[in-house]
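Review this today:
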Amino acid sequence: MIKSLATFNFLVLSCALFRASASADDWTRFRGLNGTGISESTSLPTRWSDSENIAWKIELPGAGSSSPVVSGDRIFVTCYSGYGIGREGSAEKLVRHLVCVDGKLGTILWDKTVAAGDREDPYQGYISEHGYASNSATTDGQHVFVFHGKSGVYAYDMDGNEVWNHSVGQESSNRRWGSAASLTLFGDKLIVNASEEGRAVIAFDKQTGKELWKAEASTLELSYGTPATVKHDDGKTELVLAVPGEVWGLNPETGKLSWFVETQLTGNVTPSPLVVDQSIYIFGGYRSSGSYRIRSGGKGDVTKSHVDWYSRNSSYVATPVHHDGHLFWIDDQGIAWCEEAATGKQVYRERVPALSAGGRPVYASPIVANGKLYVVTRHDGTLVVPATTTFTVESVNKLNSDDTDFNATPAIYNDHLLLRSNRCLYCVGK
């Protein structure tokens, strides 16, 4: 339902008068600027505990695996309650939350809820690993946008007033794993990978919620990554997304397919595309079936002309990060990897000694700041690892007071690290 144009115009005018657009320093989407996971901060802490370097801690109204996003001093994070994570409840009581936190004070400003009813897949199997709030919000500094899976996409102003909402479908994949992709902003467009819900990538006018284009394909099933953009020297921009067996370059203005590359990444593709300049790095596939570097651009099938390299090394869940000509990640088996970005050549493959044996010890994607990797593990704390060609662990930082899962990729707020668990949101720093 889209609210009246008069209401919308009033909200836009209010935002224009009293709020600036999102700053380049803000962490406005999953993994920051264009999903690269790179922070310019040189002052992030490298050691913390329950009693050291915790600026504030907030108990959240529900669980979730999504990452916080930041605009100014406002932090947004999604949660769910009423069903799952060992809580009492039932599917029809499932509620989706968008929480706004005052970053300076460490207090919750508002909590907007959407009753999901029993639309979502049952809390069983793989969905019990990540839950019903895996989609990170995004913000342009005037509005915050959130993807609540089968409950739809919602836009709010910065004070929590709903501006519009729109359904993107209520389908399920053949594995019923739930929703995971986060939102992408491109100019005046909000782009949604609704692969789970509608087998489609959809663009909405971010101000009104009007559907601008819809690219539908059955092959979108089991594509869980967040789209990224590639800007070319001629000013043209492409939207890139990996699906099982292919990588697509779409025109973000129309949703039309510009080019595609056939890959060996079959089954589900969970990591998001990583864009560095005009190169695209793709990981994933069933049993981590490989990784690729692809040159963007071209027309039609560019498999033979635009693939720089293919490697059997891969990541199943986490999206790697690029630093100083190398790709880094820790996979869901607890193995740390480093590859040469130019060639795909393996630099190191090391088992991380700090991780518990068994299970899937890492879901979160790494970020990099000041030459150090920050990798959140599910149960064993956050690892600080120098982003060099020799693997070492500088510190292991565990919050012993919180025994819930830490599945979320961290975010950056004013030289502080934002960590979220299934229970709390933490602001780490002085």
